[in-house]
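Changelog entry: the REP element-mobilizing transposase RayT record was regenerated in this release. Current contents:
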Amino acid sequence: MANTYHQLLIQTVFAVKYRDAQISNDIRRIMFPVMGNLFKENGCRIIIINGVEDHVHCLFGIKPDISISNVIQNVKAKSSKWVNENSLCKTRFEWQKGFGAFSYSNSQMEVVYRYIQNQENHHRKTTFREEYIKMLKKYNVDFDDKYLFEDLQ
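Regenerated structure tokens:
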């Protein structure tokens, strides 16, 4: 639409099903660029993707007429299909159901970027569960702890 201006930054967080440690360094090196292309295919501007063995953080710009849920559904579906078609994991690769999504102003982008960039160091001290619950509380997201990780084995 003409004369529509926006600056929408979103960080999403989603995990490997059962929090399995399936995303090795070797897989990350080739998977994250593929995921970046999938964000672009969905009309988004990817800023950074990073994560550790059991989950991923993505920071991207999105247009106001695009659904975050549709983007993440497409990225997760196509990236897991790509991992499986290329036999990158010893077992079938799947993402967990759902995701976390958090919005930021442009002035926060550098801090969020560094946070995502330093995931490996961060997770030497903090588990994914601890990190995720802390984020939900920080942003006042209502949640029921019993449903957060319902697909655990």
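DSSP finds six helices and four strands in the chain.
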